């Protein structure tokens, strides 16, 4: 029994060190990938729940490493957060998004509004709002073309978050709370935030049709949004039944595989150009 215990322990430490090694390796590759701009941005459509029209998109980071192959965000984003690389990564994605929006505009493809995920470490940079203004200027984009997605936990974690968010809002850039309902922000707190959009987490959407709890939560979020004058986006929508429920409850915007997976810029333009209003 002792020997078995020892073996188990050795196996455990070996696994631990394998995981730690992989982490170090990934971080090293990621640093290189950011420096040499190996990361790309893909776009996932946001669609009006009533008309099916394109109303915007979310920019999502994609990493195809020559050495490692495709690495999913769920693997590299946490490492980027822990190592601080998320600032440079977020920067790269923001810039690539602006560049792409400008390029689309020159061809007459005006995606109304693209949202970019922003990390707490970016928001903590004192000059983030100035930097944002400079980017919009450099790529000649109206502020309304851009939205930032921020999680509740991020907002709670940043000192002076409200000041920073107000400065961003003053530029005319929209703000949304991502994965809404999974954090703990109070109603009173939410009322103070200069946000325009609540994104309903996929976990709740998954529960539509599978019992009352998730449906009740979604109704509550939409009711809350309505009473505060905010709009709602539901993410992870895969089924017609989910769209029917969300539309009936007053959720304006749908994002999910039902309409489209995240696509590279060329594929996104091909799929959505003809359906674009104007
Ligand atoms: P998120 O911000 O909640 O993004 C939505 C995720 O759900 C994306 O995963 C998207 O591909 C996926 N998704 C969309 N529709 C569906 C659907 O119908 N079904 C299913 N099963 N999934 C769907 P992705 O691209 O793997 O990104 C995962 C997370 O990584 C994101 O979650 C976000 O938190 C983070 N992330 C991605 N890109 C960036 C970035 O540029 N900066 C930062 N800070 N985080 C990022
Ligand atoms: Ca997001
Ligand atoms: Ca989300
Ligand atoms: Ca989510």
UniProtKB/TrEMBL annotation:
- Domain of life, per UniProt, equals Bacteria
- Which part of the chain is the EAL domain? 23-276
UniProt-recorded name of the protein? EAL domain-containing protein
Shown residues in whole-protein numbering: 440 to 717 of 725
């Amino acid at each position: 029994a002792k020997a078995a215990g020892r073996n188990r322990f050795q196996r455990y430490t070996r696994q631990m060190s394998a995981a730690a090694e992989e982490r170090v390796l990934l971080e090293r590759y990621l640093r290189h990938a950011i420096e040499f701009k190996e990361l790309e941005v893909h776009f996932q459509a946001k669609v009006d729940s009533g008309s099916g029209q394109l109303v915007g998109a979310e920019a999502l980071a994609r990493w195809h490493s020559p050495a490692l192959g495709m690495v999913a965000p769920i693997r590299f984003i946490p490492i980027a957060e822990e190592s601080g690389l998320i600032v440079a990564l977020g920067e790269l994605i923001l810039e690539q998004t602006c560049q792409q929006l400008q390029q689309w505009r020159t061809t007459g493809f005006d995606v109304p509004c693209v949202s970019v995920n922003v990390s707490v470490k970016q928001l903590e940079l004192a000059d983030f709002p100035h930097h944002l203004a400079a980017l919009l200027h450099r790529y000649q984009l109206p502020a309304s073309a851009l939205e930032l997605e921020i999680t509740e936990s991020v907002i709670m974690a940043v000192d002076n978050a409200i000041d920073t968010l107000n400065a961003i809002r003053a530029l005319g850039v929209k703000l949304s709370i991502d994965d809404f309902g999974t954090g703990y922000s109070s109603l009173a707190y939410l009322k103070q935030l200069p946000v325009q959009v609540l994104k309903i987490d996929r976990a709740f959407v998954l529960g539509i049709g599978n019992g009352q709890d998730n449906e009740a939560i979604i109704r509550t979020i939409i009711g809350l949004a309505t009473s505060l004058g905010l709009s709602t986006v539901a993410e992870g929508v895969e089924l017609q039944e989910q769209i029917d429920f969300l539309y009936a409850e007053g959720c304006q915007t749908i994002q999910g595989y039902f309409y489209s997976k995240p696509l590279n810029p060329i594929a996104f333009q091909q799929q959505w150009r003809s359906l674009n209003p104007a």
